[in-house]
Amino acid sequence: MNQPPPHGWHQQPPQQGWPQQQHQGWQQPGWGPPQPPKKSKAPLVVGIIVGALVLAGVITGLVLYLDANEDSGTSKRADKLPSLCGNISEAALAKARTTNPNGLGSREAKLSDGTRTSCSWNQTKGVDGSGLRNSNVYVSSGQEQAETDFDRVVAQNMANNQGTPQQKPLEGLGDEATAVLVETKSAFTEISIIVRKGDTVVEVDLSGWDAGIFTNAKPDVAELEAAARGMAEEMVSKL
Prior knowledge:
Elements: H1 42-68, H2 90-95, E1 100-101, E2 107-111, E3 114-122, E4 132-141, H3 146-158, E5 164-169, E6 176-183, E7 189-197, E8 200-211, E9 216-217, H4 221-237
Antiparallel strand pairs: 1-3, 2-3, 3-4, 4-8, 5-6, 6-7, 7-8, 8-9
């Protein structure tokens, strides 16, 4: 015979619809702790690419800078120039940044109405800096028509089609003198100083460009003119 349970005790019927309590530390099958989202590698890749491009740009800029500012010219030569070329001092040549004698561009020729002497210098490596400079001096002496020859040389320089020539007279140099400046669309610049003294016509040509930050730059015109005039003054004073 079944006995009733002790007083106060009785079995509660199971309640429907309520989940069983989950004990701490235990997980139901198929569940786990939340996983952190996977980090994208895109920012790292972009950073590497940008860094490589910046480095390449720096290297390219450095190469261009060093190339533009490389010491120009050739080793010092011992070329012998016509004796008249000695009227130009080493100091004047240094100011023009053309201390290297160029025998191939220098000569003395006898003409029917006088003598024509050509003197040429360019840069000495390790002495005359970067950029480019070339200087040439032409002396035509014994000219019966020196005034006509002077006008011819001036007109010839003004006909330079490499740029827009500009002319200005110069005072205190020979019997008459003028300067012709030719600036081109590039950095190349040339100045010619033409002087007549008696039956002699002297032409001094100084040309070139300077080294810029990454490429060639136009030289300072006042500096170029002063150097060319210095050479002309020395040549004319010793005629």
